[in-house]
Amino acid sequence: MSSFKLIAAVAIIVFSATLSSCGFSPLYGKRVAGQDSAEDHLALIQINQIKDRVGQQLHNRLLDRLTPKGEPANPAYVLTVDVSESVSSLGVKKSAVATRSNLRLDVSYVLMPVINTLEEALSSGTVLAISGYDISNSEYTTLVAAQNARTSAVREAADDIRTRLAVYFRRQKNNP
């Protein structure tokens, strides 16, 4: 048993050395002292208001994910987001009554610098989030299931946008 622990310890050390030599670095961590991390840049993003209730939910989730310490006093970037929601029936009984639905959020985003002389987007993209829910005989149960599906899709979209923006800032740091 002790020889297994020794082999495992050696394997972990070799694996760690291999990772550090290949240039691997954590997405949200600081690589070099004095350099801003992706999180530092994310905290400088002002998020424009998004229309509709689902837009408000997405806006609030993005605030939590991008600027957890509060909105920046002097933002360096502006994030504009547009969201559209659609629902499609999946499971259909012989009586033509739907039993399952998918809620789909199509989210497009554009990151611009606050001072924008070139009118070029720094980063932009489209995120797709789909969440399914059951349609019950009870209207209340179906309503709650749809709200939970919406919350799940909003969470997924916000997390995807945050990851994409963090990757953008990490790439900018590596390629100034």
Write the layout of secondary structure elements.
Elements: H1 2-21, H2 38-42, E1 45-47, H3 52-66, E2 77-89, E3 100-113, E4 123-134, H4 139-174
Parallel strand pairs: 1-2
Antiparallel strand pairs: 2-3, 3-4
Question: Would you identify the regions where 5 or more consecutive residues have pLDDT less than 50?
Answer: none
Q: What general outline do the C-alpha atoms trace?
A: flat
Tell me the count of domains. Answer: 1
The share of residues in extended strands comes to 15-25%
In this structure, how is the largest beta sheet organized? Answer: 4 strands, mixed
CATH H-tier superfamily: Lipoprotein like domain
Helix content: 40-55%
CATH class: Alpha Beta
Question: Residue-averaged pLDDT, rounded?
Answer: 83
Count every helix, treating DSSP H or I runs of 4 or more residues as helices: 4
CATH fold-level assignment: Double Stranded RNA Binding Domain
- Indicate the structural class: alpha+beta
Strand order of the largest sheet: 1-2-3-4
Second CATH tier, the architecture: 2-Layer Sandwich
Q: How many strand segments?
A: 4
Alpha carbon gap, first and last residue: 50 Å
CA radius of gyration:
22 Å
Could you spell the SSE succession in H and E letters?
A: HHEHEEEH
Written description of the protein model:
The chain is α+β, with helices and mostly antiparallel strands and 176 residues long. It has one domain: Lipoprotein like domain (Double Stranded RNA Binding Domain). The protein is 43% helix and 24% strand. The chain contains four helices and four strands, in the order H-H-E-H-E-E-E-H. A four-stranded mixed β-sheet has the order 1-2-3-4, with helices on one face. Helix 3 (52-66) packs across helix 4 (139-174). It is flat, with a radius of gyration of 22 Å. The N and C termini lie far apart (50 Å). The model has no long low-confidence stretch (mean pLDDT 83).
